[in-house]
Each structure stands twice: as structure tokens, then as C-alpha cells.
UniProtKB/TrEMBL annotation:
It comes from Christiangramia sediminis. GO terms for molecular function: electron transfer activity; heme binding; metal ion binding. Residues 191-233 are annotated as: Disordered. This is C-type cytochrome. The keyword Heme applies.
Amino acid sequence: MRSLFHKTIGFCLLGFAVVSCQDKEDPNYQYMPDMYEPVGYEAYGEYDVFENGQEAKLPVEGTVPRGWLPYDYENNPQGFADAKANLTNPLPYTQDHLVEGKALYTIYCAVCHGDKGDGKGILVEREKILGVPSYDDVGRAITEGSVYHVMYYGINNMGSYASQTSIEERWQIDHYVMSLKDQLEGNPEREFVKEEDVQKSMLPSRADANLYQDAGDVNSEPENENNQTEIQE
Ligand code: HEC
């Protein structure tokens, strides 16, 4: 009985000793340290564990990033002619898109093409660049498709805007460029698409935005469900 008493006390003391030795500043004893201390690889770092020693990988061939659509027209005269004849703006002509397009146009295009699209941007006036056409140039007869095509690939002295702008942004700029062309030609202003006729989820980037919004919306209305079926089609 006495020895049991001593054992118990001894055990308690031992337990106390173990617990009290723990330094609260340090992590506790780690059983499977791998899980506590993962190896963090720097993006673009060089590590032997990777196939070519490089952390950053190219996307798997044939995969398409979310919100991105491949552009079907090739960067050659035939592709240009096809886009010019057949490609149309998938975004509805709304005030929102036009306002957005104007802002982007002012950032990316106006330095050369001018605020009015007459080819008299500041760089042209300072003679830093030559041969910038006006959007009402009869010989060029630009269309929604051709405007998008040159933004995507660039044309001669004009660079591509594919990396600076998203698909949607390019189409917004496109609407604005066509509205500038109308103004230059003295055509009546194009009417905006009515709110109720605006089709949602026109582009994958948009569809995604709606999808995420709906997912987070607890009180989602039946209207949202329609939206989602549209996307899956
Ligand atoms: C650095 C100056 C510069 C900027 C910035 C610029 N462009 Fe251009 N753009 C040109 C030049 C130069 C041409 C004439 C190219 C040629 O055909 O030789 C041109 C031609 C065009 C054409 C006529 C293409 C055709 O059908 O022949 C369109 C449309 C156009 N640009 C749209 C845009 C849009 C939209 C932006 C902004 C996203 C933009 N440009 C930005 C210099 C520029």
C-alpha cells in the first residue's frame, strides 16, 4: 500500500516535471514533423525535386484557364479577313460597357488614335509615330471583328493588347471604337440594348463572376438558378 502511494506521488511528480519543462514559446513535441513543417517552394524558384529543376510549370497541354476562350482567327491576312467579315461583339451594347470601354480606350489607345479616334493622338502630334489611321478611314472600313483582331494580334506598328486586356475589356473597347467611328462619320448614335434584353453570362469571365456571386448568395432567387443552367449549356 505504501509503495503504491509512493509510486503515485512519484508518477505525479514525473508528470509535473515533464509538463512544466515545456517552453511555451516553442512548438510542442512533434510526432510527425512533416505535417508541421512543410517545405515551402518559392514561385519560380529552382529545386532539384522538380523535373526540370523549376518550380513554375507550364499548364498541361490542351487545358484552358477559367474565364478564357481560345481565339479562333489566325494571325495572317486570311485570319484578319475572316474576323473582319464574321466576328461580332458578343457583349450587349449597354451604357456600362461603353463607359468602361471609353476608360480603357483612354488608357490604351488614345495616345496614338486620339480621344476622338481621328488618328491625332499626342504621340502623333509630337511625331513619335506615323501612319495612325482615323477610324472612319474608308479604305480600312473597320468592323467589330477587325478591331478585335488588331487588338488581339497587333498590326504593323501597333502592338498587341492581348496581354494587357481581358477578353471582356477588349470587347468593351471595341464598342467604344465603333461608337467613335459612328461619330466621325456623323452617323446617329446607336441605341443601347434595353436592360431586360441584356443576356447574362455572355463570356466565360462574366459567367464565372455570376457563378461565384450566386454560390455565395444564400437567398438566391429562382432567377439565379436560370443563370446557372445557362452557363452549363
Ligand atoms: C503606339 C500607337 C498605337 C496605339 C497605342 C494603338 N494603336 Fe491602333 N494603330 C496604330 C497604327 C500605327 C496603326 C496602323 C497600322 C497599319 O496598318 O500600318 C493602327 C491601326 C489601328 C486600327 C485599324 C486596323 C485596320 O483595320 O487596318 C484599329 C482598329 C486600331 N488601330 C485600334 C486600336 C485600339 C483599339 C487600340 C487600343 C487598344 C490601339 N489601336 C492602340 C497605332 C496605335
